Automatic annotation (TrEMBL):
Protein name as it appears in the record: BRCA1-associated RING domain protein 1
Keyword Repeat: yes
Gene: LOC115210513
PROSITE patterns, A to Z: ANK_REP_REGION (PS50297), ANK_REPEAT (PS50088), BRCT (PS50172)
Assigned GO CC terms: BRCA1-A complex; BRCA1-BARD1 complex
Length: 357
C-alpha cells in the first residue's frame, strides 16, 4: 500500500481491503510514509483503520521518530494523542525526543493522550486465516506421534521436521499441568512467534470438523519456566510487527560448549532465529569502536544502566575462563541466561556481568 498525498485514493484502497500495516522492502509501513511527508489527514485515517502506531521500520525508527526528525508537528501531535510510545529507542539508542530541537517540537511531544491503541483487536485477529496448516511436532512419545499423524491427515495438514516460515503451528507434548519441555524446537518457535499448542487443539479440530481457535490450547510455558507465557509474548511480538527478541544484539561464543548444554552451532542458530548477529572474532575493549554497535530493541524495559549494551560474550558455565570487569557496551552471558531469556521472552534475562579483556 503505497502512500501519496491523496486521501480519497487511500480510503478506496482501505475499502478494497488493503493491509494498513504492510511493510515495504525497507521496512516502512504506510504510517511511516504518511508521517515522514507530513500527511496528517492520511495518518489519522490509517490510525483509525488499525495502523500499528509503534511498529519500527528501518533502523528501528518508529513513525514518531520519523515525524519528529522531519519537523512534522501536526503528525507528532496526532501520534502522541493516540498513545505513541515516547520511550522506544532506535538502533542508535535514540528516542523520538532526542530529535526535537525546537521549542515547538518539544511542546508537541507534551500533547495529551486522547486515544490509546489496544491489543484486543490484535488478539482477535491472531488466528490463522484458514490457509494451509503446516505442523511441527516435538516432545511426543511414539504412540502420540502416530496419533498426531493420523489427526493431521484428517485435516490435510502438512508435517515438517523443523521450524521454518511455512510452519503455522508447533504441536508439543505437555505434562498434567499443561507445561512442555524446553526443547530447542520450542525455543525456536517462541522466537519465531509461532502458535505453540497442545495436541488437544488438533483433536478438537478433528472432532468439530473445522479449524477451532488456538488460544484455549496455547501452551503457557515450559517446565523450566512455568507460566512465563513466552509463546503468547513471542506471537504478539510478531503480530505487532516488532523486531525479534535479539534484534540489535551481537554475540560471540567463547570456549567449548559440551553436553548437557546445546552445541555451539545450535546456540548460534537460536541467536540467528531471534534476529541476533554472530561474531566470528572475539571482541576486545580497545577495538569496540571498530564494531558497528547497535542498541537492543527489547532492552527498553531493562535498567537504564544496561539498556544500551548490545554486545555479548556467551560462555558455558563449567568451562568459561573469563575474568570480569564493568563496561557499558559489553556483557558476558551464560548459556543458561541465554536460554532463560528465550524461554521467558524477556531480553533483560541476558544481562549479567562484564568481562575484563
Amino acid at each position: 500500500m503505497g502512500i501519496e498525498n491523496n486521501l480519497a485514493k487511500v480510503q478506496i484502497l482501505l475499502t478494497e481491503g488493503a493491509n494498513v500495516n504492510t511493510k515495504d522492502h525497507a521496512g516502512w509501513t504506510p504510517l511511516h510514509e504518511a508521517c515522514n511527508h507530513g500527511y496528517e489527514k492520511i495518518a489519522k485515517v490509517l490510525l483509525d483503520n488499525g495502523a500499528l502506531i509503534n511498529t519500527p521500520g528501518s533502523e528501528n525508527d518508529t513513525a514518531l521518530h520519523d515525524a519528529v526528525r522531519n519537523g512534522r508537528i501536526g503528525c507528532v501531535k496526532l501520534l502522541v494523542s493516540h498513545g505513541a510510545c515516547q520511550t522506544l529507542r532506535n538502533a542508535h539508542g535514540l528516542m523520538a525526543k532526542d530529535y526535537a530541537f525546537t521549542d515547538a517540537m518539544k511542546e508537541a511531544l507534551t500533547t495529551d493522550v486522547l486515544v490509546t491503541s489496544s491489543t484486543p483487536e490484535l488478539q482477535s485477529s491472531a488466528y490463522t486465516d484458514g490457509g494451509p496448516i503446516c505442523i511441527l511436532a516435538t516432545a511426543f512419545s511414539r504412540d502420540l506421534k502416530v496419533e498426531l499423524r493420523k489427526l493431521a491427515s484428517v485435516i490435510n495438514a502438512k508435517i515438517v521436521d523443523d521450524v521454518s516460515p511455512e510452519v503455522t503451528h508447533v504441536v508439543i507434548g505437555v505434562n498434567k499441568d499443561g507445561l512442555c519441555p524446553r526443547t530447542l524446537k520450542y525455543l525456536k518457535a517462541v522466537l519465531a512467534g509461532k502458535w505453540i499448542v497442545t495436541l488437544d487443539w488438533l483433536r478438537t479440530c478433528v472432532e468439530y470438523g473445522y479449524q477451532v481457535s488456538e488460544e484455549p490450547f496455547e501452551v503457557a510455558g515450559s517446565t523450566s519456566n512455568p507460566f512465563s507465557f513466552a509463546p503468547f509474548k513471542g506471537r504478539m511480538n510478531k503480530l505487532k510487527q516488532l523486531p525479534r527478541l535479539f534484534d540489535g544484539c551481537q554475540f560471540y561464543f567463547h570456549g567449548a560448549f559440551n553436553s548437557p548444554v546445546p552445541t555451539k552451532e545450535e546456540l548460534m542458530d537460536l541467536v540467528k532465529q531471534g534476529g541476533g548477529h554472530v561474531l566470528s572474532r572475539e571482541p576486545r575493549l580497545h577495538t569496540l569502536d571498530e564494531l558497528n554497535l547497535t542498541v537492543p530493541y527489547h532492552a527498553v524495559n531493562c535498567d537504564n544502566n544496561i539498556s544500551q549494551c548490545g554486545l555479548f560474550i556467551v560462555y558455558a558455565e563449567k568451562t568459561h575462563d573469563l575474568t570480569f570487569h564493568q563496561h557499558p557496551k559489553l556483557c558476558t552471558v551464560s548459556v543458561s541466561c541465554l536460554m532463560e531469556s528465550i524461554a521467558t521472552f524477556f531480553l533483560c534475562k541476558l544481562y549479567g556481568i562484564i568481562p575484563q579483556l
